[in-house]
Amino acid sequence: xxxxxxxxxxxxxxxxxxxxxxxxxxxxxxxxxxxxxxxxxxxxxxxxxxxxxxxxxxxxxxxxxxxxxxxxxxxxxxxxxxxxxxxxxxxxxxxxxxxxxxxxxxxxxxxxxxxxxxxxxxxxxxxxxxxxxxxxx
Length: 137
Known about the structure:
Elements: H1 5-29, H2 36-47, E1 55-56, E2 60-64, E3 68-71, E4 74-82, E5 85-92, E6 101-106, H3 107-112, E7 114-116, E8 119-126, E9 130-135
Antiparallel strand pairs: 1-2, 2-9, 3-4, 4-5, 5-6, 7-8, 8-9
């Protein structure tokens, strides 16, 4: 039994409507410019901090073990963890830039906030290799 002319027309209309719907969906999912998603990815990669480097942002300090960071005329060097305490060397640049003042701060106290030199900080994360501090003041 062959399909009637009406059945063929209905099939053709559904085929056209279905094809148009698929094309619209594909068009909507593509970026507006061909470099759109790649450019987005590259900007995120460029904004990410380099691995293994100490750095300062507007409200955070990331220190790798043994590397120094200068914040508010105070140079800080992260020395690691010892018995649940954070070990840092603090150099007060205005007073004596060559002499380290060793500091040991318990983790619990660091999470509440602590002062180093003229800055007030709060612990964000810490491990043997790195520490992240939030700059409060």
